[in-house]
Amino acid sequence: MSYNTIISEFEDGIQHITINRPKQLNALNKETIEELSRAFQQAEDDQNVRVVILTGSGEKAFVAGADIKEFASFSVEQGKALAAEGQQKLFNKVAEMGTPVIAAINGFALGGGLELAMSCHLRIASDNAKMGLPEVSLGVIPGYGGTQRLAQLVGKGKALEMIATAGMIDAEDAYRRGLVNHVTFPSELKELSLKIAGKIKKNSPTAVAAAIKAVNAGYEDGKNGFDEEIKRFGEAFGTPDFKEGTTAFMDKRKPDFKGE
Ligand code: CAA
Questions:
Q1: Residue 220 bears catalytic tag
Q2: Residue 1 pLDDT more than 80?
């Protein structure tokens, strides 16, 4: 599949998706959202993809937000549609993927950029990363799920402070607040992402996907996370991966999971 604004490459069980508009600090315009949506769908549909690593091209930015130039003259209706379509096509899609997604945050992750990183299942930041939701400084609010996901990750009080001040925090601060899982040197960001992806890859893809769904259920309206856990736990007993995992344990060998 060919893309104009992203690069999507497969290697050794990992889909590497790179947002590639470095001159605009990888800002998310309509085309980029569409292309990311397609690339994530393709990764989700491909059984060979065990983990996705998402990053931005260049050394300065992961993503500096939604493309301000594109939406500056939008009407109320267009604004609503921008948020609704973006959430449905990309941000919720990433969060609901059964294939785990790691955001490798290599610089600015602002507005829609931080919202995209927060939709991913894990976040690893380089020590030069800067994160924030500066939308209120533009007279708008986060529209790609940021008001919800930031509060879930760092708590309501810290989230409201970040949103209302429109300030940026550095990677160490983000780590202390639980916004990112790890911080590393820029030169080691890819290596650490691959290391963590490698640990995930050894496990049953069906079980990892089920665990993501169970965790997510606790944050979804109308769903009970504990009930979802019971359902997914039971379903796991009917999978070839469960048979392989338990048999391998008893045979004292490493499992060879097929993701079935
Ligand atoms: N949209 C469009 N273009 C952007 C952009 C964005 N979000 N962020 C940066 N760019 C462009 C700049 O306009 C500039 O392009 P030109 O050279 O053509 O002028 C180029 O990227 C480089 O940016 P700067 O010259 O500004 O770089 P800097 O190092 O001086 O500053 C920055 C870096 C602090 C990240 C600054 O670019 C900035 O503040 N960007 C905007 C951040 C922001 O407000 N993001 C939230 C967007 S709103 C949103 O995301 C809504 C939502 O939730 C749905």
A1: no
A2: no
Candidate list 70, 135, 191, 220, residue with the active-site label: 135
The answer, yes or no, to whether any atom of ligand 1 lies below 6 A from the CB of 69, is yes
Contact 4, 35 (CB under 8 A): yes
Note whether residue 258 is domain-resident.
no
In ligand 1, the atom with minimum distance to the C-alpha of 108 is 35
Q: Which residue segment(s) compose the domain that 210 sits in?
A: 205-251
Distances (CA, A) of 6 to 26, 157, 194: 9, 35, 20
Structural domain count of the chain:
2
Are both 12 and 139 inside the same structural domain?
A: yes
Mind listing the pLDDT tens digit for each residue in 156-174? 999 999 999 999 999 999 9
227 pLDDT above the threshold of 90: yes
Tell me, yes or no, whether 157 lies in a domain. yes
pLDDT digits (tens, 9 = 90+) for 187-197: 999 999 999 99
CA of 193 to the centre of ligand 1 (A): 26
Q: Do 50 and 89 share a domain, yes or no? A: yes
> Is the pLDDT score of 221 beyond 90?
no
Q: Is residue 260 part of a domain?
A: no
Contact criterion met (CB below 8 Å) for 26 and 113: yes
What does the buried/exposed string (b/e) look like for 203-222 if buried means 16 or more CB atoms within 10 Å of the residue's CB?
Answer: bbbbbbbbbbbbebbeeeee
Residue 100 lies in a domain: yes
What is the whole-number distance in angstroms between the Cα of residue 64 and the centre of ligand 1? Answer: 5
